[in-house]
């Protein structure tokens, strides 16, 4: 994977209460590109943070249907990844942790 793709795979941290609980168990949650694969996500985290990744789980979050003044609208969906780091590895500068 080229260097440019590494920066386009991870879009940012997904900061929620559930992500904060996952960070206590050495799992970190990221919003990722919709076409990102597990090996790409793993390599991007290893390159950008310099940490050893144990496993990656990805899921697609469907956009919610909402009522608007013009009728029904739909929010855009996104893809997120739960990244489990190897034992002894942590992301100190991660906003969802601690």
TrEMBL record:
Membrane-crossing segments per the record: none
Top-level taxon in the UniProt lineage? Bacteria
Q: Does the keyword Chaperone apply?
A: no
Keyword RNA-binding (UniProt): yes
Q: Where are the coiled-coil regions?
A: none
Q: Keywords on this record? A: Ribonucleoprotein, Ribosomal protein, RNA-binding, rRNA-binding
Q: Which GO terms describe its molecular function?
A: rRNA binding; structural constituent of ribosome
Output the SUPFAM superfamilies linked to this UniProt entry: Ribosomal proteins S24e, L23 and L15e
Q: Could you tell me the Gene Ontology terms of the biological process aspect for this record?
A: translation
One of this protein's Pfam families, by short name? Ribosomal_L23
Question: One GO cellular component from the entry?
Answer: ribonucleoprotein complex
Relate the assembly described in the record.
Part of the 50S ribosomal subunit. Contacts protein L29, and trigger factor when it is bound to the ribosome.
- Please state which protein family the record places this protein in: Belongs to the universal ribosomal protein uL23 family.
So what does this one do? One of the early assembly proteins it binds 23S rRNA. One of the proteins that surrounds the polypeptide exit tunnel on the outside of the ribosome. Forms the main docking site for trigger factor binding to the ribosome.
Under the heading PANTHER family, the entry gives: 60S RIBOSOMAL PROTEIN L23A
Protein name as it appears in the record = Large ribosomal subunit protein uL23
Organism of provenance = Billgrantia endophytica
Q: Which gene encodes it?
A: rplW
